[in-house]
Amino acid sequence: MLPKKKRVKKAVFHDLMKEGKTFSTELFLFYSIKNESPQYAFVSPKNIFKSAVNRNKYRRIGYNILRFLPLKSGSGIFVFKKKAITATQPEIKDNIFFILKKTGFLQ
Length: 107
Known about the structure:
By secondary structure, the protein is an alpha+beta fold. It contains three helices and four strands.
């Protein structure tokens, strides 16, 4: 899990969803804003992952991938898409790397 200070807070979450720039890949929809401190969140929608066990599993996978990355300042929300149901952990990792490189949040 990411430390609490690196997770998006509720107030910032709503701003990101409304005003954030979007970037899309086959597994994620990514909302981002340039910020002072790096804060990230993973959203696994209930209409895609029916069971809470799967929703939490995929969120944990995402947080564990981000935990070891050298992140620059900026906030972002990763929203899983329907194709993520069949994705493996390396595929998820590749998509996260690709998104963070393209948006400039990776050092």
